[in-house]
Design goal:
This protein is α/β, with parallel strands linked by helices. Helix content is 40%, strand content 17%. An eight-stranded parallel barrel has the order 3-4-5-8-9-10-11-12, surrounded by six helices. It is globular and about 55 Å long. The two termini are 35 Å apart.
């Protein structure tokens, strides 16, 4: 496992992080014992950052059980506040504070290493960047969160977040992929300039870059042009006996310039595949051919949240 600095935080984190949506059964049933075993396997395999959220069902509860007995001190523990359901958002200072206190109880710890506001693009940004961020700073000063940040999708939103606040960390998803390199071209330069730790997620573009295609339980938000490009990539890799998901993880982990890529594995084989992807040399000819199938620049993303935030 490779370890990298997380911006200016002073933390060093594994190039592959564990996302816990699967622990909360967001992608299908998962026995609690298996969920706990997966966390232990991730830590034993060298993963040092685990990302969770109140939005992820029972994930915090299960993760707290998995980190008991001294394992809490082995990881950089990240959770979120502000999103509690598909369309349930509250970034008020009081709710952020109450959410963190509940997360601390469930996780069995008295502090969080990284606390982020979750999917901020779904509400007007002004109050989030003002009152919401001020509350993050208060929680940081109180010692309940060592570092703070925000998460979500649109490039416009997170360029603004990094320029207008002193966030330590930003997590964004599905823009450091075989389909779209805007995370690298548009956000990495700002993050590097301001010392922000960038976390990448959704290397397989919410399932588009897998042999089966997306199986998320909502209509995939990507426009037809992006979905068509993904199908061409999958077909091209299949015809050459290559695993498109493995290549997608290789690219996200090795080539995006981010500190870590969060992998939401729910099975041991998927977790270990992502870990192997971090160190397996990329087939450059295959990669170049797949990247040539990308949609044109400017048509590689989709809209999430409020129109004004995209």
């Amino acid at each position: 496992m490779e370890y990298r600095p997380l911006g200016r935080t002073g933390l060093t984190v594994s190039a592959v992080s564990l996302g816990t949506g699967s622990l909360g059964e967001m992608f299908g049933p998962l026995d609690e014992a298996d969920a706990i075993g997966l966390v232990h396997e991730a830590i034993d395999s060298g993963i040092t950052l685990i990302d969770t959220s109140p939005y992820y069902g029972s994930a915090e509860h299960r993760l707290g059980k998995a980190l008991a007995g001294g394992r809490r001190q082995q990881v950089v523990l990240a959770t979120k506040a502000g999103r509690y359901g598909f369309d349930d958002f509250d970034f008020s200072p009081r709710r952020i504070r109450e959410s963190l206190d509940r997360s601390l109880r469930l996780l069995g710890t008295d502090y969080i290493d990284v606390l982020q506001l979750h999917d901020v693009e779904f509400v007007p940004l002004g109050p989030v960047l003002d009152d919401g961020f001020a509350e993050l700073e208060r929680l940081k000063d109180a010692g309940k969160a060592r570092f703070v940040g925000m998460t979500g999708y649109p490039i416009k939103t997170f360029a603004r977040v990094m320029r207008e606040t002193d966030v330590d960390v930003v997590l964004t998803y599905a823009k450091g992929t075989l389909l779209d390199d805007s995370l690298t071209t548009d956000l990495v330069p700002i993050a590097d300039d301001r010392g922000v730790g960038l976390m990448n997620a959704a290397a397989v573009a919410l399932g588009l870059l897998t042999p089966r295609g997306s199986t998320i339980n909502i209509d995939h938000p990507a426009p037809p042009e992006v979905q068509d490009a993904a199908r061409r990539m999958v077909s091209y890799a299949n015809d050459r006996g290559a695993d498109i998901a493995f290549l997608a993880n290789q690219y996200a982990i090795q080539r995006t310039g981010t500190a870590t890529t969060v992998v939401g594995a729910g099975k041991s084989r998927n977790l270990q595949s992502a870990i192997r992807a971090a160190s397996t040399p990329i087939d450059e000819e295959l990669l170049a051919s797949v990247l040539a199938l990308r949609p044109p620049v400017g048509r590689r993303q989709w809209k999430m949240g409020l129109e004004e935030n995209n």
